[in-house]
Write a structure and sequence with these properties.
About 65% of the residues lie in helices and about 0% in strands. With about 280 residues, it is mainly alpha-helical. It folds into two domains: about 1-145, no CATH class; about 150-280, no CATH class.
Amino acid sequence: MLPLIQSVNPDYIDRLEKDSLEAMLIWLKKIHPVPGGLIQVWEDFKYMTFIERTFNGILNGSPIIKMSSLFARHLLSQSPEALHFLRLLVLPSSGTSSISVIRLLLGVSWSDLRSTISYLRSIIGEDEELFTDLCNYTRELSFTGESFPWPSLSRDLARQSIHIGKDIHAGKLKDVISWHEIRFSCNWAIHVRLSPSCNELLHDIWSLHPSQLPECNAEEIYYVLKWLESFPDPPSEVITRWTQYLADIQVTDWRERDFDADKTEKTWKSHLSYLYSYSQVT
């Protein structure tokens, strides 16, 4: 059975419960000779469930308990990939994510993600307090050189979400992930509005039609428009097109007929207040 187990798509392994992963590890360790490489793979996936479970249970503003700033800085300086991974985890507008979704949003292979996971496991093991401390430290300006909530990360997430959405729409990721899972984990339009002005994201928006992102709503289109209008030299052609998208959806979708820009702006300001309050490390 080993060749079959070795060929299992990691996206499906990630959906297994912790008990199933532990049962597989117990079974693998009974085989002689022990398939060391395969055991390592399943150990890494088991550790991913620890990360999901621990992070999803972290309370906002939880205090630093064990880890010193100096030690955290040393750990994260040794692995930029680990820092990038943790930053994505702690960004509130990314929502609760499975490791499969995080991998897609990072745009990395399972092999690269496993290397990052293995690094974290070798340092902090399954110590929930150390993991929580490390997540908290990533929000400090001195660790990233960029103020929370990290506009550059929002730019990367916005671009990657749009690319994933287009791939799903084209049927390329049909058996891997749904747009609902991506959208729940990463509000693409919020990240667009949080992004700095840049030509790369502008090109993605220029080539995007809302129909490529299932259930794209008026609020999301509005956030894209506000980002476009924030350019020093606003791209009038793209703004005109997205203004029409907003008008069209209020006619074609009965759920959007009562869209109110003022209410949406209040929602946006509340979201920003939450983000900046979340940035405080105790």
